[in-house]
Amino acid sequence: MVPLFGLLLVSYFSASKSVEVITRSQSMRDGETVLSARKTYEMGFFSPGSSKMRYLGIWFKKAQPEVVVWVANRENPLENSTGVLRMDEQGRLLLLDKEAGKVVWSTKGFLNTGVRVFAKLLDSGNLEVRDGEKDLPAGLLWQSIDEPSHVMLPGMKMSANRRTGARRHLTSWKSPDDPSPGNYTVEMDFSTLPRVLLKHHQAIKFSTGHFNGYRFVGVPFMQPESVLQCVVRITEDQADYIIQMKIPTISIMTLSYNGVGQRLLYDEGTNVWETFTYLPADECDRFANCGAFSICNMSNFPVCGCLEGYAPRNGDEWDQQNFSSGCVRRTRPDCSGGDGFLLMPLLKLPHLINSTVDIDISLSECRNKCTSDCSCTAYAIANVTDGMGGCITWFGDLLDMRILEMNVQDLYIRVPASSLGKRPPSYQEQ
């Protein structure tokens, strides 16, 4: 079992009582909590680790240790135990510092709300503000899953809108004692085809690879498919990534303060969290670990190897296990018929930098497109569903390739004709 990093509710104020809902007449003070119907999740005030600061949060109640899944005032902690959560006349939730006499966090307000507005914690871990005089979805005024913290719950949406630039993403804690926004994010990228990126500040540390209509090309075993389904919904402007459970169990995706993404599954028999996926999982998961035109293979030593027809750009660095400079072609491209395309299965497709996507052409048309452009270094099908269509063409460096344990889809790489039918030393079919 992989340890849980920076997510534990280590120190919290024991609740003196629980309230069912928050209304205009029913508040919640530090020392009180709100429980979901089946007592799966609990909301209250807590102090993480050795910190004495107070935060309003939601945590999974059943398992030990208790994992915090959402924090309201992560940027504005309370310095004492005088915090109160109440609802105002506009239906806003207000977190008050009674001692300082100020609001440290709030939801947005709503006009024309009914008299029966309330906030309720669901067994999904979602905190909802509802207008009881309206049916759903119109009666749903606000929900916590629209403002993710460091944990992705089932039903929560990670999204990117390439027209507006708006993103909904996870942000790590700063440390186990400090849930304020840290240095790592997990976010959707929709600049070309959808993909999920783990970033340290703005530097990519891990990429799932793009979504090919069926799965992310770099993580074929990202989910136990008998337990949950990871759904990607795509419109012209926006891509959404959503977790849906197939069986009545609890699974969450967490981002630790030190940049480890984990998929946790709650074992109801033992009341503990089991980790069945964590990313980056190995050296080959590090983004562009082997540099350009190189393949990472955890079965080999060294793990990095050049493509057939390519050689290390800096042999001295390569001998010292520094592969960041990558590889270069041994010969110049020959666009008069001296080059061909080498089929590479069992491979994570390259990062989509310096690539183009054309959804409306076939694989044979894609090959012709790449063949006719001497700067095209590789091509692949864009979408493997519905008859396998669309085209990705790469120009310039090919980055972030690794050997996979199963074939997600094929890649065709431009190589000298003399290299056709060969495989580089780094390439071993599993």
UniProtKB/TrEMBL annotation:
<dbReference type="Pfam" id="PF00954">
    <property type="entry name" value="S_locus_glycop"/>
</dbReference>
<protein>
    <submittedName>
        <fullName>Uncharacterized protein</fullName>
    </submittedName>
</protein>
<keyword id="KW-0348">Hemagglutinin</keyword>
<keyword id="KW-0465">Mannose-binding</keyword>
<keyword id="KW-0732">Signal</keyword>
<keyword id="KW-0430">Lectin</keyword>
<feature type="domain" description="Bulb-type lectin">
    <location>
        <begin position="19"/>
        <end position="142"/>
    </location>
</feature>
<dbReference type="GO" id="GO:0051707">
    <property type="term" value="P:response to other organism"/>
</dbReference>
<dbReference type="GO" id="GO:0048544">
    <property type="term" value="P:recognition of pollen"/>
</dbReference>
<feature type="signal peptide">
    <location>
        <begin position="1"/>
        <end position="18"/>
    </location>
</feature>
<dbReference type="GO" id="GO:0005537">
    <property type="term" value="F:D-mannose binding"/>
</dbReference>
<feature type="domain" description="Apple">
    <location>
        <begin position="335"/>
        <end position="417"/>
    </location>
</feature>
<dbReference type="Pfam" id="PF08276">
    <property type="entry name" value="PAN_2"/>
</dbReference>
<dbReference type="InterPro" id="IPR003609">
    <property type="entry name" value="Pan_app"/>
</dbReference>
<dbReference type="Pfam" id="PF01453">
    <property type="entry name" value="B_lectin"/>
</dbReference>
<keyword id="KW-1015">Disulfide bond</keyword>
<dbReference type="InterPro" id="IPR036426">
    <property type="entry name" value="Bulb-type_lectin_dom_sf"/>
</dbReference>
<dbReference type="InterPro" id="IPR035446">
    <property type="entry name" value="SLSG/EP1"/>
</dbReference>
<comment type="function">
    <text>Involved in sporophytic self-incompatibility system (the inability of flowering plants to achieve self-fertilization).</text>
</comment>
<dbReference type="InterPro" id="IPR001480">
    <property type="entry name" value="Bulb-type_lectin_dom"/>
</dbReference>
<dbReference type="InterPro" id="IPR000858">
    <property type="entry name" value="S_locus_glycoprot_dom"/>
</dbReference>
<keyword id="KW-0677">Repeat</keyword>
